[in-house]
Design brief:
By secondary structure, the protein is α/β, with parallel strands linked by helices. The chain has seven helices and twelve strands.
Length: about 230
């Protein structure tokens, strides 16, 4: 009986988790975000938006550069967030494993130095060098790419299949415990199978994805910087 109840609870949790997909989300004010920022987040099945961003390797990167990859993993991370830093070793391990199997990881910092000095480009270079990132680390200073994808927090991951349709978005794992969402999604994609859990929004209160808020600029800030 206990096993059946446990299974029922897990199945119900998965069902509710899948039903929780929402394209319109709100990044809450606080910690450098001056007001609630409504953003449109990619939905499962959406195509990967194009971008061209400068990386710590002094080269520009775009999704088309990795068109032969069996899976494309877009990671929104940063330098200052303790949660993002805590997951660096995990991401390095996963990248080394799955890039050898045909996936490609691309990390993007969506926080401009205007908001957080520690997230500036020189600091990105230092961090990537110190940790030996096995993937490109790109600077989204205008936040145009972040606004196209819609990450709420760092870290926040988006996994695209060989057709570059979104098959998974959300957390890397359950606070370093199972379910290992990102790893499970990649195993499924690389095996040509359907991803079992396509959205994982565990975490902080109403806003769910675990980590620090992306430091989105308000419309007034974007206008002042000539970004509108």
């Amino acid at each position: 009986m206990m096993k059946r109840v446990g299974c029922l609870a897990v199945c119900l949790w998965l069902t509710l988790g899948q039903a929780a997909v929402a394209d319109e989300v709100v990044v809450p004010a606080g910690h450098g975000v001056l007001e609630d920022i409504p953003i449109t987040q990619l939905a499962i099945g959406d195509e990967a938006p194009d971008f061209e961003l400068f990386g710590v390797d002094y080269r520009y990167h775009s999704p088309g550069r990795y068109e032969d990859a069996k899976a494309l993993v877009i990671l929104f991370i940063c330098n200052h967030c303790r949660v993002s830093l805590d997951y660096e070793d995990t991401l390095i391990e996963l990248a080394n494993k799955y890039q050898a199997e045909g996936a490609q990881f691309v990390a993007i910092n969506p926080n401009p130095a205007y908001k957080v000095a520690a997230d500036g480009f020189p600091q990105m270079i230092a961090r990537a060098t110190e940790k030996g990132f096995p993937f490109p680390y790109l600077y989204d200073e205008t936040q145009n790419t972040a606004r196209a994808y819609g990450p709420e927090r760092t870290p926040h991951v988006f996994v695209f299949g060989p057709d570059r349709k979104l098959v998974y978005k959300g957390s890397i794992d359950n606070h370093h415990e199972a379910p290992f969402y990102l790893s499970d999604a990649l195993q499924a994609v690389l095996a040509g199978e359907e991803v079992a859990i396509s959205v994982a929004r565990d975490g902080m209160g109403e806003y769910k994805v675990f980590g620090c808020t992306v430091k989105y600029l308000t419309e007034a800030e974007r206008a002042e910087m000539g970004l509108n």
